Amino acid sequence: QELTQEKTYRDLREALDNKKKVYILNLDNQKLTEIPSSIGKLINLQELYLRSNQISVLPPEVFLLPNLQVLALGENQLSELPKEIGQLKQLEQLDLFKNHLSVLPNEICNLTLLKQLDLGWNQIEALPESLGKLTQLQKLNLFRNELVSLPQSISHLVNLLEFDVHDNHLTSLPDSIGNLTLISELNLEKNELTVLPASIVQMKSLKKLIINQNKLVKIPTDLDKLVNLEELNLSNNKITLVEGNTFNLPNVTYIDLSINKIKKITAKMNNLPKLTTLYLSANQLTVIPSNVFQA
To answer: Is the Cβ–Cβ distance between 91 and 112 less than 8 Å?
Structure first.
């Protein structure tokens, strides 16, 4: 049902007085420490916003709302996500940003209509392999967690458009990450990556690739296959050599290679017609290579 014309209720008592007419309930910023069980009476509720409160436990009644499509719980005190979350089969958006979660229940894989999942700023150490069943996901935020790896099944999320996993402890990426061909923005900043999988050049829709503050020692020599790339940030790594067709990128406007250990740039750079910014500071170059001037 289209909800643009529906009233947004901001008072639970008023909502309970109009139980069957309530489709959107927004209780953001109301200093709530718990969710009243009476919320289960709002059987037609489709969007529930509870952000920026002090909620630490979710009552079972929340998981009995059969029509819920949006559940926003960002900036609360949740340390556990009950397995009953899997009962919300109509859910399309789940916001758990900035809580205290360290694990996710396998039952999250039952949310097969989910399009947006925000798990940023938690303490999650590992993701269930079943995450790959959320094939309708378009936006996945995992930044500022404690992840050291990603499940191989993440390559099944073929509808992803945005994927942010910055500020974790990733040492590698799944070889099959190249299957995510619709992603336009990939943020891997502040991890511990030493190498990129060869398949990354299959991500043809990438416009922004952010990999600064990692431990990369080399970069793929065929990055030129990312023909739609507009921004490339590789600063603050351990790169020593730039070679091959790495930088023949016809749509790129911004390249940052600063704060590396680059001694030599032999890469072809004669096809950078839109480049406006190139950072090379804090490297070990003694002269600016002539091919840089071609750029």
So the answer is: no
Is residue 219 within 8 Å of 195, Cβ to Cβ? Answer: no
Closest Cα partner for 144 from 174, 110, 99? 99
Which residue reads 């952010």 in tokens? Answer: 210
Which helix (H) or strand (E) segment holds residue 24: the answer is strand 24-26
Contact 79, 102 (CB under 8 A): yes
> C-alpha angle 99/50/120, rounded to 5°?
30
Task: Give yes or no for residue 287 having a pLDDT over 90.
Answer: no
Stated pTM of the model: 0.94
* pLDDT tens digits for range 75-108: 999 999 999 999 999 999 999 999 999 999 999 9
d(CA 184, CA 177): 13
* DSSP label of 290: H
Q: What is the predicted pLDDT for the residue at 247?
A: 85
Query: How far, in Å, CA of 98 to CA of 75, rounded?
Result: 5
User: For residues 163 and 36, what is the distance between their CA atoms, to the nearest angstrom?
Assistant: 34
Query: Does 248 have pLDDT greater than 70?
Result: yes
Distance, C-alpha 150 to centroid of its chain: 12
How far apart are alpha carbons 252 and 229 in whole angstroms? Answer: 5
- Which residues face 265 on adjacent strands? 242
